[in-house]
Design a protein that fits this description.
The structure is a single chain. With 169 residues, the chain is an alpha+beta fold. 25% of the residues lie in helices and 17% in strands. The strands form 2 sheets. A 4-stranded mixed β-sheet has the order 4-3-5-6. Strand 1 and strand 2 form a beta hairpin.
């Protein structure tokens, strides 16, 4: 299976096939609204504003597994992010990223880019970068600020192989 074979629930309860994002550069992030890293939403929004017109998407997956730092409902999380950080990128339903109930998408991401000591996600705001052909190219720790990823995103957007496969779904 590849990344485009997965489906995730958006924050309105609708199933979204990730093949809807085929041909785009993706930054997939597990987030929380009450975390010390929560201000990274501002940097994520700046990345989105800079690159979204060139085929870049951020997929936001709230997660309450780390210190119960995303305790609200999907609606409350959306309201917080839209009001506090003015985020406009796609947000999905709250998920788990580790353990028996981990999202299949996150199980796949972790298999493609393992962490330093363990494949498990260590905390909120772990980031996965995915190229236009669906290859998971990098994993970034929560301490890595979104702004620091701009050069990597730019490389993927400009790469000669960045053109999506003809007829790709």
């Amino acid at each position: 299976m590849g990344i485009y074979d997965y489906t995730a629930m958006d924050n309105k309860g609708r199933a979204v096939s990730l093949d809807a994002f085929a041909g785009k550069v993706l930054l997939i992030v597990n987030t929380a609204t009450g975390c010390g890293f929560t201000p990274q939403y501002a940097g994520l929004q700046r990345l989105y504003e800079t690159f979204s017109g060139r085929g870049f998407e951020i997929l936001d997956f709230p997660c309450n597994q780390f210190g119960s730092q995303a305790p609200g409902t999907d609606e409350e999380i959306e309201r917080f992010c839209a009001t506090r950080y003015r985020t406009t990128f796609p947000r999905f339903a709250k998920i788990e990223v580790n353990g028996d109930n981990a999202s299949p998408l996150y199980t796949y991401l972790k298999s493609q880019q393992k962490g330093v000591l363990t494949p498990d996600i260590k905390w909120n705001f772990t980031k996965f970068l995915v190229g236009r052909r669906g290859n998971v190219t990098a994993r970034f720790a929560p301490t890595e600020r979104p702004e620091a990823l701009a050069k990597e995103i730019e490389k993927l957007l400009e790469a000669p192989s960045a053109q999506p496969l003809q007829g790709a779904i």
